[in-house]
């Protein structure tokens, strides 16, 4: 292995990967715009609000990069299936924001805040269905299977998250189950289908699936760290959302486990009873720092990141592999 | 044509059809139970609440009946695809009840009332995704295409309904566009895939698609009539829901168009401003009767029902065709 997480650039970013798949991503964007069209004006209005807000576009890039890593070039199938992945992600974001009652997404007012919960639910359904129409057009039952299964697992993860919300007895394992399902599953599927599209052997498929799963887990661990540590302007969403929603993430699980009885009472009042007082978020952040819980969660993210990098070992060295490694390094060190 | 809507039985029912496909429907129910399983307990809990409540199961019966009419017998594919149709329908019901804030469904407390909106949205997503997993297992890209397209059209219809809600200027054509998309599309797809599964020619496919579309339109027209005329205990949902939600259905469009200026002011206050006073539902029902709007809407339903019966002309006479005709007659004369 020539590349490991220890050989970091000063500031790893997504730019290397973005640059390599730039032409294809432009085509992905066009496919997205073409397929969110509807004669019902509210649909493209709402969908384009979310699409225009941008986001990292990690998932479709993973499909394109994985296909490229597997020797696939210039075909339409990877572009179309990458668009499907982004559609599925966008549909889950719309439904998430309804479930979480979020008002901010990607630095802008969320769709539910602007257009109402009803429209967000229904346009999410529309995008999800359109993703399947596009997959059918692609004609690969294997890709359909992988993305349909991932979609079911994402929903399961979201329901599991609902069930663990407001429960300070949630274990680290339950938390990992939630983020594996709600986030890592789509990263894994997005990466795996790149190998499927390129017609590679099952071992290569599985290696890329694991790369995506590990990367996605690291990504979500850092997401949950940022919810307690980020600057709001950089993050593009409200800091402290998880705390106010009573979501039990790893920083909380660690700080709660190590906390005094009085601190546990504080956590229970906030997270279980949702009974907040002025200054509670500050206190939560102080307690999390007191027990080095953010650093511990970031260590976990780095472990998963290293696994993701190891998953790439079987593939040929080159610029695309380097960019996929740098994407991992970005995910575990990102400030947003 | 030996069979027309004019040769009615005294009280047409669904029993003839139900009886003919009974063995297959038992298998459909088992497939539904098997595929709504999840390790996250809330999912089967919520899903089985809705499934146990029953409902007419018209849509999966249409798939089974159409396949049978086309000479298909005893295979698993029709059973599995009928279950997919019911999953898609159940998912849309869960999301509908969130959008409409309904508290009653099939005579019981609705899932959102019992389990919350969040769980209803997410379990709907889960069932929808599982439907696609099951379709992929079936292996027919044609069936996948038809049901994916129908799913997108349903969501479009629901968004269009949101856009026309509270707007007394809604035309009859807009109303028909809404019900064609939100209801008839799945009836049409459910019937069409029966022919696809049986491997019949495109003309037979399209005839059954049209049968389903016409039947579904008639079904929804009567549904909207019942919202102003039914006995609540028989209907199994709250009478007057559409009125309170400001939904613009055909009875309202007719009564509004024929209404005096004072009556138009009444309709606008209720449906547009959602500003209700004691006795408003009674007054709405009186105005609707004054202009024979229910009878006019039922005439429309009968026209669509006759078209559905005509669509079956090309198929061989026999008990299954007779039952499909009786199903139409039931839909246009049903009290629930």
Task: Report what the structure shows.
- The structure is a homodimer of 336-residue chains.
- Chain A has helices at residues 15-20, 22-35, 42-52, 58-69, 76-100, 111-115, 117-138, 141-164, 172-197, 202-229, 232-235, 241-245, 250-258, 261-272, 280-290, 293-311, 319-333; strands at 104-105, 108-109.
- In chain A, a hairpin with a 2-residue loop joins strand 1 and strand 2.
- Chain A is mostly helical.
- Chain A contains 17 helices and two strands.
- In chain A, helix 4 packs across helix 9 (172-197), helix 5 (76-100) packs antiparallel against helix 7 (117-138) and helix 13 (250-258) packs across helix 16 (293-311).
- At the A-B interface, helix 5, helix 7 and helix 8 of A face helix 5, helix 7 and helix 8 of B.
Highest CATH level, the class of the domain at 15-223 and 307-319 in chain A? Mainly Alpha
Distance linking N and C termini of chain A: 29 Å
How would the global form of chain A be characterised?
A: globular
Strand order of the largest sheet of chain A: 1-2
By CATH, the topology of the domain at 15-223 and 307-319 in chain A is Farnesyl Diphosphate Synthase
pLDDT averaged over residues of chain A: 91
Our estimate of the beta-strand percent of chain A is under 5%
SSE run of chain A: HHHHHEEHHHHHHHHHHHH
Overall radius of gyration of chain A: 20 Å
Give the biggest beta sheet of chain A: 2 strands, antiparallel
The most extensive interface between chains reads: A-B, 44 and 42 residues
Total beta-strand segments of chain A? 2
CATH superfamily of the domain at 15-223 and 307-319 in chain A: Farnesyl Diphosphate Synthase
Share of helix of chain A, binned:
over 70%
Quaternary state of this entry equals homodimer
Count of helices of chain A? 17
Structural class of chain A: mainly alpha
Architecture of the domain at 15-223 and 307-319 in chain A, CATH level 2? Orthogonal Bundle
């Amino acid at each position: 292995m020539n590349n490991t997480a220890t050989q970091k650039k000063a500031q790893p970013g997504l730019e290397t990967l973005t640059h390599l798949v730039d032409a294809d991503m432009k085509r992905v964007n066009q496919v997205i715009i073409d397929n969110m069209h509807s004669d019902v004006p509210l649909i493209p209005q709402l969908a384009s609000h979310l699409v225009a807000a941008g986001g990292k576009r990690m998932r479709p890039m993973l499909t394109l990069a994985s296909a490229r890593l597997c020797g696939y070039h210039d075909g339409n199938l990877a572009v179309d299936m990458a668009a499907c992945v982004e559609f599925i992600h966008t549909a889950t974001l719309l439904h998430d924001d309804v479930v979480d009652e979020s008002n901010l997404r990607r630095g802008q007012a969320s769709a539910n805040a602007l257009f109402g919960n009803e429209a967000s639910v229904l346009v999410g359904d529309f995008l999800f269905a359109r993703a399947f129409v596009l997959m059918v057009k692609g004609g690969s039952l294997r890709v359909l299977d992988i993305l349909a299964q991932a979609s079911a697992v994402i929903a399961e993860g979201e329901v599991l998250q609902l069930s663990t919300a407001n429960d300070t007895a949630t274990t680290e394992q339950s938390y990992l189950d939630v983020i594996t399902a709600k986030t890592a599953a789509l990263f894994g599927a997005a990466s795996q289908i790149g190998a499927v599209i390129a017609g590679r052997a099952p071992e290569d498929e599985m290696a890329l699936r694991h790369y995506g799963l590990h990367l996605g887990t690291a990504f979500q661990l850092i997401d949950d760290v940022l919810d307690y540590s980020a600057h709001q302007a950089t993050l593009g969403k409200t800091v402290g959302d998880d705390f106010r929603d009573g979501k039990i993430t790893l920083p909380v699980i660690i700080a709660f486990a190590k906390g005094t009885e009085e601190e546990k009472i504080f956590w229970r009042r906030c997270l279980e009873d949702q009974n907040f007082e002025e200054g509670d978020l500050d206190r939560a952040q102080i307690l999390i720092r007191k027990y080095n819980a953010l650093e511990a969660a970031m260590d976990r993210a780095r472990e998963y990141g290293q696994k993701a990098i190891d998953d790439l070992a079987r593939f040929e060295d080159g610029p695309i592999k380097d960019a996929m490694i740098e994407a991992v390094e970005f995910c575990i060190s990102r400030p947003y």
